Amino acid sequence: MSAFVTPCFIYLDNNATTQVASEVFEAMRPFFRNQFGNPSSMHTCGGVVAKLLDQSRESVAQILGAEPSEVVFTSGGTESDNFAIRGVLDANPDKKHIVTTRVEHPGVLNLCRHLKRHGYDVTELEVDGDGNLDMDRYRASLREDTAIVSVMWANNETGVIFPVEEMARIASARGITFHTDAVQAVGKIPIDLGKSAIDLLSLSGHKLHGPKGIGAITIRRGTRIRPLIYGGHQERGRRPGTENVPGIVGLGRAAALAMEHMTDENTRVKAMRDRLEKSLLDAIPRTKVNGNRDQRLPNTTNISFEFIEGEAILLRMNELKIAASSGSACTSGSLEPSHVLRAMGVPFTMIHGSVRFSFSRYNDDSQVDLVIEKFPGIVEALRAISPYWSDSQA
Ligand code: PLP
């Protein structure tokens, strides 16, 4: 079962990206050379490929409980997020208000902040110390001129799950379009769009053992939305441009595999996450889990180790060939400490020492054993040279 991106690496950074499953890779391979036809062509070379695109669309629809006709392939989560928000605003020019949250992925948050600079009114809902939203405040934020609500299904940093189905019902009752960025949720928790009022959903291939640069958006029939880009007739004009055939085939296979592994994700993977979390909390003082532990993705834990730098922890872990990520500056690819942990009011001494461990089905118990064995020593060594730690002990 176990496989690593880099030989010998214990890869616990699966919310950043995942290894392409070997079945996915094999499914994609023919489409780079032998089956290179353009799905729009009249001849057989194209027709064969077009059929496989339809099969992939069905697989993606199935994992979401959507209709295949509602699935539109895109280049990934960021494009799907932009398509949802910009497309709805474009189709509803009289409505200038957007509701979102302070803890969204930059694919939503930076777009909303850009739109704010261009005349839109944006409400960013606050979260509490556990990363939860206040539903009364949410209800109160909705207005006559609200064009769209965009709220993520699960947070990429903490794994906290928002009640998006309930939020979508509330928006729908007010005639407001509801979008969810489900990039981290798809494949990890059950989703049934057929039973929900969610109008638009974003997903991304590389978070579920599919390839990078492919994703999808679901568009519920009847949703008022315009394309993000204009061109040919592909994806029924909703997302023009010659299709990324290997990517789409890979995403379809990845979605089918994720369905098969959903139980494993919510039992074995969750048990590994829980064991690591409990062991680190028991072994290391001044340590805290960030986010609501009951409403969380089964694969994610975000833990703060007070008075040390996340970067330093990650570097020591890297030397031991353990990959994870941090909510502090630089290592997360940005200059600012995590906007998610800041929005939750996590103190700076805790934000800086935060580490996110995110599992996948390719992890196993022997890897957890090794992290449990090595990690306390890393924290102890770093605290021994931390002036903040010695001050706190004085
Ligand atoms: N939304 C969330 C919650 C994510 O975690 C990510 C990726 O980190 C994205 C959107 C962006 O997806 P992509 O990398 O496919 O553009």
Please provide a written account of the structure.
It is a single chain. The chain has about 400 residues and is an alpha/beta fold. About 40% of the residues lie in helices and about 15% in strands. The chain is built from 12 helices and 13 strands. Helix 1 (about 20-30) packs antiparallel against helix 7. About 50% of the residues are buried. The structure holds pyridoxal-5'-phosphate.
In short:
The chain has 394 residues and is of the alpha/beta class. It has helices at 22-28, 44-64, 77-91, 106-117, 135-141, 164-173, 245-283, 310-319, 339-343, 348-351, 365-384, 387-393; strands at 10-11, 71-74, 97-101, 121-125, 146-150, 177-181, 200-204, 215-219, 287-289, 300-305, 322-323, 325-326, 354-358. Helix 4 links the parallel strand 3 (97-101) and strand 4 (121-125).
Average pLDDT, all residues: 94
Strand portion, in percent? 5-15%
Fraction in helix: 25-40%
> Which class of secondary structure composition applies to the elements?
alpha/beta
Helix-strand sequence: EHHEHEHEHEHEEEHEEHEEHHEHH
Task: Determine the N-to-C terminus distance.
Answer: 48 Å
Task: For the largest sheet, list the strands in their spatial order.
Answer: 2-8-7-6-5-3-4
- For the secondary structure, the number of strands is 13
Let me know the largest β-sheet.
7 strands, mixed
Low-pLDDT segments, ≥5 res: none
Cofactors, ions and other ligands in the entry: pyridoxal-5'-phosphate
Q: Note the total helix count.
A: 12
* Overall form: globular
Write down the Rg: 22 Å
